[in-house]
Amino acid sequence: MDRRKALMQIGMSMGYVVAAPTFMSVLQSCTDTKAAAWAPQFLDQDQGTVLIGAIDSILPKTDTLSASEVNVHVFLDSFANEVMPPNQQDQFKATLDQLAVNALESSKKQNISDLTAKDIAPEMLKALTDKKAKGVPFAKKLRDLTIWGYKCTEYVGEQVLAYDSIPGQWIACGDLDELTGGKAWSI
Prior knowledge:
Shape: globular
Order of helices and strands: HHHHHHHH
Helix content: 55-70%
Oligomer: single chain
Number of strands: 0
């Protein structure tokens, strides 16, 4: 491996590690804010609408909260603004723009603000599964970042995963079903 590449990758990794606590505080902020009240810092308002629809198509509301209900879109907007290199930022915006164009075509709607997660979900699925899908270079990374951001929220850490705010005894070889009810531990 080239030494410069290795140093660059180590530096980017450290940037992710150092920036993560800042972004977690954004995710753990008040979850009662509505999507309409959110003003994106990095994206424009239309791209923000598409982002909310895309993340809610990846992680919709079921017996747990949807991705937008735990402010993953706010996290992704801040993450793109402060951490992503310029080429990834461009791919991120281009992917959201192309998803909007595709969703408007397939849903026969006129305005991006009218799009919902149900309109964007089929286009997101095509972007993730169809190797011939063009103009959506960041779709898989968007999915990965959405899942990562969701798993790092306070809600998921305390309500979905096994959580012990004050760790007790250490059991080295215990059955996961007995110890946590089959849930993974929250870190």
